[in-house]
Amino acid sequence: MLEALLGGLRLVATLDLRLWEIVGLSLAVSLSAVLFASLIGLPLGAAIAVGRFPGRQAVIVVLNALMGLPPVVVGLFVYLLLSRAGPLGALGLLFTPQAMVIAQTVLVLPIIAALARQAVEDAWREYEEQLRSLGVHGVRGALTVLWDIRFSLLTAVLAGLGRASAEVGAVMIVGGNIDGVTRVMTTTIALETSKGDLPLALGLGIVLIVIVLALNAAAQVIKEAAQRRYG
């Protein structure tokens, strides 16, 4: 075990090309998915938080339930959409990084939207009277609150990134785990562990943990700096 761990550290320290190519693809896929999910999920969550419409409570229940979507079900759904017999089969996206981005976006979107909705709703209770007195309501009100609590929403985005970066099932189904094409950190760790290649699996695991810790630390620093600046 110690020998495998040292081997993993050696791969990281010597900038092993295969390892860092996998890391690069993983980051590209996960960050792209979180970006798209945030662009959709943050405004959607804010709109649900501020809006008052029939069936709103049912929408909130469904949105919260979707936070626990099984990754393999999402992968199967996207696979059916992108397969040759599916409605988007003509695009030829199956078993490509783009397909993995789509699957992770679908998986992460409810998480970001639900957490954003709760954060905006809490802030709206505080600001509603003041904003309405200024004639700000509806979409403008939602966007105003969304912007005001933008640093607090880093938590929602990081939650989505954590889910995306740790995902295996969905990306395995739609990506196919093709070496040099769609093989990311999580699928490589699963594969190499089953093959007994522990140094590569441990090396990727170390990098994955360091990336997650670094992103969370950076977000915390940004949030604290913003709080000091804006009060």
Secondary structure: elements and pairs:
Elements: H1 2-13, H2 17-50, H3 56-66, H4 71-82, H5 97-133, H6 138-148, H7 154-165, H8 169-175, H9 185-195, H10 198-230
What does this structure look like?
- The chain has 231 residues and is mainly α.
- Helix content is 78%, strand content 0%.
- It contains 10 helices and no strands.
- Helix 2 packs parallel to helix 5 (97-133), helix 2 crosses helix 7 (154-165) and helix 7 (154-165) runs antiparallel to helix 10 (198-230).
CATH topology label: MetI-like fold
Which CATH first-tier class would you pick?
Mainly Alpha
Overall mean pLDDT score? 86
Largest sheet: number of strands, sense, barrel closure: none
Salient structural properties:
single chain; 231 residues; mainly alpha; MetI-like fold
Short description:
With 231 residues, the protein is mainly alpha-helical. It has helices spanning 2-13, 17-50, 56-66, 71-82, 97-133, 138-148, 154-165, 169-175, 185-195, 198-230.
